[in-house]
Design a protein that fits this description.
The complex is a heterodimer of chains A (573) and B (65). With 573 residues, chain A is α+β, with helices and mostly antiparallel strands. Chain A has helices at residues 12-23, 27-32, 34-44, 60-68, 93-100, 109-115, 179-195, 202-209, 227-236, 249-260, 384-403, 422-431, 437-445, 488-498, 501-508, 516-527, and strands at residues 5-9, 50-57, 81-87, 116-122, 130-135, 145-146, 151-157, 160-166, 225-226, 240-245, 266-274, 281-295, 308-309, 314-321, 325-331, 336-341, 344-349, 351-352, 365-376, 414-421, 451-459, 462-470, 480-485. In chain A, the strands form five sheets. In chain A, strands 6, 10, 11, 12, 14, 15, 18 and 19 form an eight-stranded antiparallel beta sheet that branches. In chain A, a hairpin with a 2-residue loop joins strand 16 and strand 17 (344-349). In chain A, helix 7 crosses helix 8 (202-209) and helix 14 (488-498) packs across helix 16 (516-527). The longest helix of chain B has 25 residues, at 2-26. Chain B is mostly helical and 65 residues long. Chain B is 77% helix and 3% strand. The chains are: A alpha+beta (573), B mainly alpha (65).
Amino acid sequence: MAGSFEVHRYSIDTLRRVLAERAGAARHVVDAKIHSGYFESYFRTPQTATILIENEYVDRDFIEDFAAYYVRCFHPYERKCSRLHFFSREFTDNDFDALLRGQQGSLTEQVLRDAYLGFIVVKPLPQTFIGRTCLKTYPDDGGRRWYPITRRYEAHLYGMALPIETLAFQEQDHVTAACATSALWSAFHGTGKLFQHAIPSPVEITQAANAILPLEERSLPTHGLTVQQMAHAIRSVGLEPFVVNVRDEFVLRSTLYAYMRGRVPVLMIVTLADMSGASPQFLGKHAVAVTGYGLAATPASPTSSGFASQACCIDRIYAHDDQVGPFARMVLDGTTVPVLSNGQPCNLLSLSTSWKNAAGTLDKVRAIPETILVPLYHKIRIPFGAVQDAVIQFDRFLEILRSHGLLPCAQRLQWDVYLTDINTLKGDLASSQALQGEARREALLRSLPRFLWRATVFGDAKPVLDLLFDATDIEQGRCFVQALEYDPAVAGILRSIVSVPATQSSLQAMRSGRFWNGSSQQHLKRLARPQHGGRPNAWMSGVQIPSDDAVVSPIARGGLFRPPPHSGSSSTR
Amino acid sequence: MADASADRGYNQNAEQLAQRAREWVTSRQGQQELSRAVQEAARETERLRQARLIDPKVLHEPVTL
């Protein structure tokens, strides 16, 4: 069928021309969009060679928006879109036509798959035409870039499946979707796969959010959502919204890292400020879906106590910003924005953006992070903050020992605290050499809850201990599940000192009473026993080991491992 | 053989550290420093708890850009 597809050699000018033609937009509108600049930069890096245009493409999300709004407009909007596919290999109309005819040639389905960079759906709208966009992420740059929220998509092109690992993006249309809707839509593409829920279209998200709409506002066209409405949209897909204030730099870094490392996308609400004048001009609030982060080689140390964590290495985030593009870079470069808070001048943390200001200048608009909203599976009940507090207290205890030369670690211990699940955890343990023998076997066989907070502490870049907390418990419960010992010397020293009453009374004074107070005692009592089979290590001889602990099961008696705090069945959900 | 020797040395060192650690935590200085560490940790976690708190009015501000 002639006209079903077109093949063009890639150039940014060709892309802009095609976008304008397919959307029915004026060329100057296309050229002025930040997306144009973003795509120019993006498609340069993977050496894009060819654009294949799939005409008459029916996009599920746009057809929902069309049915809800555009079909009832007087202007006859088109309901079909175009889909632009990008390849890093050059080929022509004739090459692709030959492939469709089944003729032997240099272009094969496998060649297309290997060269596939993703697609952009172009909606037939005059201004806001960037529809569902799935583009391959940049390479990880030796572990510097992390995109934990990506998932596998398959673009089906005339019978050929072209897989791509990414997260879908689209621009708000200012009618059925605002920025918050687009951010939610991208986040739901991540959580839909992770937590198994249906992924609503933009208009369905707006309608769900507007179930609690103030009476003075209309539902469609939408002029934006509040955080409360966004939370309501999250509930509508069966997830629980979790809201955190992230004005503090350490809270921002550590909270983003903890959930995203667990593959949960995070919605971030920022205030945009134009810094081109003498004083900042505040433009309003904007929402993005945070989908990745970059790690610097050396961590920043934003806590007064010197608590060191992997999260402090985050020096940039990657966000689906509907006004910029997918995986748009926002850098934590230390620049602050001066404001008056309750009449007092203060400087607020900010991130760079790719926004242009009113004069069309780049690099002048800063994003001040305000709030994050995390869409969580309902069984993830223990908030990160509670675990972080417990870990900071335990770290302080370890640091006082280390700083007096009582732990065999030259440098400050570094923590890696994040959400995980039982399968990921056991997969890590199974593929790692850190645990061996009986300890490894016990760790792999142990029944654990589906979701866990994992706090790994490193000494001189080597893992020392892993503390596991049940993320599905209640804060008043016994969330601390288990410690895995990687460094027998450190574990032995801890065992030897926790039997001393002075240590126990100090630990009792730790004020995180929600779950660490009790469990730290239990953990340290567990450490106070020799590992595995009740046979103390040679260097443990002479160290007093308390024998009273009624809750230790006969199986675990004498070892670090103990039954799970609640009934012991492995979670299947 | 060299590994076994290194392990023995490491274990002896760890044993000595454990003994020193037990003495230190029972000493007056050790108890004072542990107590101070606990207080510092409490201050830090309280600061973080306050920093994470949401001002309820931000929940109702429109996100419009």
